[in-house]
Design goal:
Layout (H helix, E strand, L loop, with lengths): L1 E3 L5 E7 L8 H19 L4 E6 L2 H9 L1 H13 L2 E7 L23 H17 L6 E6 L10 H25 L2 E6 L10 H11 L4 E6 H6 L4 H11 L3 E6 L1 E5 L5 H8 L10 E5 L2 E5 L2 H5 L10 E7 L9 E3 L1 H12 L8 E4 L16 H21 L3 E2 L2
Parallel strand pairs: 2-3, 2-14, 3-4, 4-5, 5-6, 6-7, 7-8, 8-14
Antiparallel strand pairs: 1-2, 1-15, 9-12, 9-13, 10-11, 10-12
Helix pairs in contact: 1-12, 2-3, 2-4, 4-5, 6-8
Length: 389
């Protein structure tokens, strides 16, 4: 979906396909047929943006086979779909029964992360619509915080510097500018927007920036305007923003609140949980750990890294951090100039929701994703953006 900002520029809205796990190119093509095109039709649009997640095998197949890449581009066109952004965070196995810490491997100290991201950039440059010259890729925020020493940090910085050189060369070769954004996430060495300032200012390259995920922003109790202003003041480019909402518990001490939270404690993904204290932010790596009653104070609200559907907050006594998303979006695109032109709805946890909230079949999932995009569309038009055909 495309929108005209009051300054005349085009803002793109997509939804991320990591909600439809696929490891191979055939699986990606099936996603387009079974999910992406039905969402477009449900919205009544002639064109729909999708943020493709390409696992290692799919990315390698496309980067090494020009005919396969042309076939994917043709299939996108035929189904009324377009791609301006990729999710390059998960490497493989995102559809496994247990993902947890595996999603953070390989990190930026591993040469394979650079190889994979370079392949994604080359693929994206060829997938961009004919009238679009800028693409974006979100990626791992350097590494999970453990086993990340000075040597690995230096290796990661060198890899990002090499990536920047390759993105420059890609621009010279194709005329397409692809930018990559580190995505701050709780528990990682880059957990907050403040954490991203030092490594990115050290690199100081316009094609390496940040991806602001509004669920992660909220989970870390960051004020959106303060965080985004700090990025702007430091000259750090906001490559893209993922529109997502976290799980919020206002009174975690109450038994009924803990019971409601326990329904979201599931075995597939990590749900880092945070609260604020006089001494600063406190947290656990997973929701189950927080619920044991030991490590996390329960006298202030808790937020958990669980991407809940934007249009459907959990039932009381829980809610979502949709207000944080709205506040961030106001700063991102509500001003005289957009801070980013790539927005991506990223609720990948539909099948991890408590059983009574999960979509029952393909049609319900299509309806839910379409409803999220419709909400995002309404937020954008309320900010003065005009939806384009």
């Amino acid at each position: 979906m495309r929108f005209r900002h009051p300054d005349g520029s085009t803002v793109h809205l997509a939804y991320c396909t990591n909600v439809h796990p696929a490891e191979t190119l055939d699986g990606v093509l099936a996603q387009l047929r079974d999910h992406c095109e039905p969402v477009r039709r449900r919205l009544g649009r002639d064109r729909l943006g999708i943020g493709l997640w390409l696992a290692r095998d799919a990315a390698h197949a496309l980067a090494t086979d020009p005919s396969a890449l042309r076939a994917l581009r043709d299939e996108l066109d035929r189904r009324g779909l377009e791609v301006v952004t990729l999710n390059g965070f998960p490497y493989e196995g995102f559809g496994a029964e247990e993902v947890k810490y595996r999603v953070y491997r390989p990190d930026w100290a591993d040469p394979e992360r650079l190889t994979h991201t370079t392949a994604l950039a080359r693929v994206l440059a060829q997938l961009l619509p004919d009238d679009v010259t800028e693409g974006s890729i979100s990626t791992l925020p350097l590494a999970w915080r453990t086993a990340y020493d000075d040597h690995r940090a230096a290796t990661a910085r060198a890899a990002l510097a090499t990536l920047a050189e390759r993105l420059d060369a890609l621009h010279e070769l194709t005329g397409r500018s692809v930018r990559v954004g580190l995505e701050p996430e709780p528990g990682c060495t880059v957990e907050t927007t403040a954490d991203v300032l030092a490594p990115l200012t050290a690199i100081g390259h316009e094609r390496i920036g940040v991806c602001v995920d509004t669920c992660h922003l909220a989970t870390s109790f960051e004020d959106p305007h303060t965080a985004l202003d700090a990025l702007a003041d430091a000259g750090v480019p906001i490559v893209k923003s993922q529109l997502s909402a976290a799980l919020h518990a206002e009174h975690p001490r109450l038994p009924e609140v803990r019971a409601a939270l326990a329904a979201f404690d599931e075995p597939r993904f990590l749900h880092q949980t945070r609260t604020t204290t006089a001494a600063g932010l406190r947290g656990t790596d997973d929701l189950g750990e927080a619920l044991t009653g030991g490590p996390l104070p329960d006298t202030a609200p808790w937020r958990a890294h669980f991407h809940v559907p934007l249009h459907a907050a959990p039932a009381a006594p829980l809610t979502s951090t949709l207000p944080v998303l709205k506040s961030a979006l106001t700063r991102l695109v509500g001003g005289p100039r957009p801070l980013t032109r790539h927005l991506e709805v990223e609720t990948y946890t539909w099948q991890a929701l408590p059983a009574e909230l999960r979509p029952r079949g393909r049609a319900q999932l299509t309806e839910g994703i379409a409803a999220e995009l419709a909400l995002a569309r309404d937020l954008l038009t309320d900010l003065g953006l005009k939806e384009l055909p």
